[in-house]
Every structure is written in structure tokens, then in C-alpha cells.
Amino acid sequence: MAETNAGTEVPGGGHGEKGAFPPFDSSGFASQLVWLVIAFGLLYILMSKIALPRIAGILSERSAKIAADLAAAQKAKADSDEAVASYQTSLIKARAKAQSIAAETRAAVSAETDTTRKSLEADLSAKLAAAEAQILATKQAALGNVSGIAVDAANAIVEQLLGKAPEPHTVQAAVDAAMAK
Question: pTM score, two decimals?
């Protein structure tokens, strides 16, 4: 079966006329060139008077802002370097002061300790001297009693052996001679 498309034909009889592409048609070159020059001139004037000055202004503002920001950053860096140097100086001074305070404290504590030690040594020496004097006195008293005890013991022994009491001065002389050896 063959179908027909009745009523769908383009009026004028064909699929279009054969001819050149309109922009490439040489009969219209002159008017196209005039419009090209006019459009280019208007575009050039628009760009040079409006767009480019605005862009140049924006670029100069940006460059001024960047320069200001860089200057502010340099100033902030200089301020921070100065603050660090000041901090270092303060830290060195504080350490020196702390060391001097520690040295003074050590010296004061050492002097106080030496004073206390010397005082205690003097007290101990005095107590030791008193104890030695007391020991010497006790020893002398004991030695004095030893002589009396020795005389009494010798007297009792001789009396026991001989049956009679010897002369007290003889026993005393014998005990003194024995103790002198």
C-alpha cells in the first residue's frame, strides 16, 4: 500500500530556492561592512569609556588594598618581633632575679644553719665539759673512797691474818705506796 501525504506540501513547489548563504552573498558585503564598523566602533567606545575604566579602578583599588594589607602585616610582624624581644628580655631579667633571690635565700639559710649549728655545738661543748668535770669529780671522790676502803680492807685482812690490828698509819703508808705504783 502506498501512502500519500496530501496537503503537506510546501507552497511554492520545492524545498527552497537554491542560492548562496546570505552572509556570504557578495551583493550585501558593503552594508555588512558598514554595520561591522559601526558595531565595532560602538563596542570600542563602550569598552574604552565605561568598562575598562571601571576595571582599571577595581584593579587599582585591589592593588592599594593589597599594599595596605602587606604594610599592616609588616607592621604586625614588626610589633610581634618587638614583643618577642621584650618578652625574651623580661624572661632573662626574671631568671636572673630568681637566681639572685635563690642565692640570697641559700646564703641566709646557710648562715642561719651555721649559727644554729655553732650554738648547738657550743651548748654541747659546755654540757660535755660539765659532764667531764662531774665525771672527774666523781672519779676523784671514788678514788678518795678507794683509799679509805683499801685501808679498811688491808686493816681487816692483817687483823684476820695476825690476830691483832696493825697501826693505822702503817697501813695507810702501805696503801699509799701501793697506789703510787
Answer: 0.41
First to last CA, the chain: 175
What 8-state DSSP symbol labels residue 12? Answer: T
H or E element in which residue 49 lies: none
Q: What angle do CA 131, 148, 158 make, to 5 degrees?
A: 145
d(CA 177, CA 158): 17
Task: Give the per-residue pLDDT at 164.
Answer: 83
Q: Which residue's C-alpha cell is 610582624?
A: 77
Distance between CA atoms of 98 and 106, rounded to whole angstroms? Answer: 12
Of 132, 173, 133, nearest to 150 (Cα)? 173
Q: What is the mean pLDDT of each run of 10 residues along the chain (181 residues)?
A: 53 59 79 93 95 94 96 95 95 95 94 93 92 89 79 83 81 81 74
**H-helix or E-strand containing 124?**
helix 52-162
Residue 51: per-residue pLDDT: 92
CB neighbour class for 172 (10 Å; exposed up to 12, middle 13-18, buried from 19): middle
167's torsion region: left (phi>0), alpha (psi -120 to 50) or beta? beta
